[in-house]
Amino acid sequence: MNLPKIPLAEWIEWIEDWLKLNFDPVFKFIKSTIEGMVNGLEFVLLGVPALALIVIFAAIAWYLGKWRMGVFTLVGLFIIQNLGLWDKTMLTLALVLTATIISVVFGVPIGILSARSDRLQKVIQPILDFMQTMPAFVYLLPTVTFFSLGVVPGVISSIIFAIPPTIRLTNLGIRQVPSELIEAADAFGSTPGQKLIKLQLPLAVPTIMAGINQTIMLALSMVVISSMIGAQGVGADVYRAVTQNKTGVGFEAGLAIVILAIILDRLAQNIVKKSK
Amino acid sequence: MAILEAKRLTKIFGSDPKKVIPLLDKGLSKEKILAETNMTVGVNQADFAIEEGQIFVIMGLSGSGKSTLVRLLNRLIEPTLGEVLFRGKDILSMSAEELRQFRRKNVGMVFQKFALFPHRTVIQNIEFGLEVQGINKKERREMAMQALELVGLKGWENSYPEQLSGGMQQRVGLARGLANDPDVLLMDEAFSALDPLIRKDMQDELVELQAKMKKTIVFITHDLNEALRIGDKIALMRDGSIVQIGTPEEILMQPANKYVERFVEDVDLSKVLTASHVMIKPETITLERGPRVALQLMRSRGISNLYVVDKSMKLLGVITAEDAAEAIKTGQSLEEVMLKDVPTLSPDTVINEIFDTISNTKVPISIIDDNGRLKGIVVRGAVLAALSGNNDLEAGDSV
Q1: Is residue B377 part of a domain?
Q2: Does the beta carbon of B86 lie under 8 angstroms from any beta carbon of chain A?
Q3: 3-state DSSP call for residue A264?
Q4: Mean pLDDT score of chain A
Q5: In a domain, B23, yes or no
Q6: Do A203 and B103 count as a contact with CB atoms less than 8 A apart?
Q7: Contact, B347 vs B276, CB < 8 A?
Q8: Do B98 and B106 form a contact (C-beta atoms < 8 A)?
Q9: Chain B within 8 Å of A183 (Cβ-Cβ)?
Q10: Which domain holds residue B332?
Q11: What is the DSSP letter of B302?
């Protein structure tokens, strides 16, 4: 048997061209929105003097967690500042926060919808699997086609990679609400909307927050890859150090990412605990 | 008119429920239908009518379909066939919105595992049904507080369910069911998860509450003693069908078939039969007759004591043969020698609670009504005979 090869690659490229041709205004809109968000966050984070912001972050960490968390945040951020990576780290933080915010804005409603419909869940599951397992470089290219080089394709790629946990865990959190409680809410004549607002969402909050936490971590893990298509920040430092074989510089930038990751992770976890 | 009525109410679980209906008409058993069609008969053509203010108990072993049946009454489970009439209106023909209104205003529910909302305080749980109706906060808080007081949990309104004991949690469940003042309260094995002592208290309180509020209650239980204690009417279920409907006494004394008979065989009669079942007619005498007449009466009847009453049968005391003879000798009147401290009980006392009194007394226990009138006496022999199932006792049996 000698079947001709399925021209999958050609099809994909054709779709890419077609989208570029017909939906350019949409992509322009998305691009300017994301750019606006990243720039806005960056403006705020860099507008405050570094030392003041370090103290503010440490105070929040202390308030949400234990004193140890506050000390770690204080020392960790001070190290970043001392290494001269403060501005770049804040740029990375702006990128990660933008990707996270957009993931939550879309991910939570999608998760709610898929919790309400088994059919939708069956459609969404494989798409999420696809998004998480497809190598990031593969969708890096088309995002560059649509949004050109810079921070925007980096944010888009981060969202694609990072949004699944928020959707999955929102779906799970709502489905985990015990059926007897749903039955009780029904027995007293709740509408579906009342059930969602008064029962399902409040009980799902811890699970949803765990999903958002994972989303933050995954978004952060994308910063080096994003830097390959022109996103600035500490990720770009790591990438440059690797290509120029500078182990020490790479380690410094890598350490900044790790410190940022630990702080964000603990903060997110403690918000969940506080909300309980 | 009955407040709630079920006609041929049927629920089949499975892929194609309608296919089973002709088989039910033919009278095939639940097992046969399961084997033939792989579908389960949840409830099989239940017919009953519940009167306003009644406690209607649906009882059966697990798997008999009682929990399904109660959920058909407010359509938490959609019936396959039949009718449910609430004050003559078929709830199966209601739209989603009408059904919601019916659930909000007319029917409350209490669940076996309480099903309290863990993220809400006690008072927020109780006002849930009022909240979904859109009643403003001040008003619903007031109504919820009343319900809370009714179940005796005042002061706990700001606690969370997990901070309460099982019995208290179910009181919250009960208050939630009562808060919107529904016409019918559905209680699905509401006390089954509680330990026995608390359970008994809750049963007593429910009966008391019902007497006060005149609610119609549909009560599901697998416990026959519970059914007999609180039920005005009992429907006994087996394999999805109702086997017998009757008052507790009818179920006990005239079982419809062998199944019911076997079911009630192990009933602890001492917890079901009351003093009024076992009391016998006392020999009485009025005060002005004097000790001589009393002694004479006792001799001629061959008994050792008489109950002294006034003209309206109000109990005054007991006179024994020795005291009568003593009075004749010393010239005292009946009033001076009779025992005035006589043990008395109400006709509703269950036999179980008579034992204590009866073992500590020389004279039979007098059964008096709320107005102090003598209705009968209980002798030891009669209690034992009743427990052994023998009901033909005559007055004059030895004490």
Answers
A1: yes
A2: no
A3: helix
A4: 90
A5: yes
A6: no
A7: yes
A8: no
A9: yes
A10: 275-387
A11: T
How far, in Å, CA of B354 to CA of B351, rounded? 5
Whether the CA torsion B285, B288, B292, B293 is positive or negative: it is negative
B197 membership: H or E segment, kind and range: helix B196-213
Give the dihedral sign, CA A83/A87/A89/A90: positive
DSSP A197: I
Which residue of chain B comes nearest to A193, CA vs CA?
Answer: B132
Query: What separation, in Å, do the N-terminal and C-terminal C-alpha atoms of chain A show?
Result: 62
Residues of B in contact with A189 (CB under 8 A): 99-105, 129, 132-133
B76 with A186: Cβ contact below 8 A = yes
pLDDT of residue B370: 82
Alpha carbon B380 to chain centroid distance? Answer: 26
Residue B21 vs residues B26, B33, B40, B63, B396: alpha-carbon distances, Å: 9, 10, 12, 20, 59
Residue B13 covered by a domain: yes
Total domains in chain B come to: 2
Final residue before a domain boundary, out of B227, B248, B267:
B267
C-beta separation of A230 from A157 below 8 A? no
Contacts of B381 (CB under 8 A, 6+ apart): B393, B397, B398, B399
One-character DSSP codes across A230-241: T--SHHHHHHHH
Comparing A46-50, B5-9, B29-33, B360-364, which segment has the lowest mean pLDDT? Answer: B360-364
**Interface check A180 vs B, CB under 8 A:** yes
Query: Is B145 part of a structural domain of the chain?
Result: no
The model carries a pTM of 0.75
Interchain proximity B117–A184, CB inside 8 Å: yes
Query: A158-189 pLDDT, tens per residue?
Result: 999 999 999 999 999 999 999 999 999 999 99
Chain B contact present for A193, CB below 8 A: no
CB pairs under 8 A between A and B: 57
pLDDT band per the 50, 70, 90 thresholds, residue A109: very high
CA-nearest residue of chain A to B130? A188
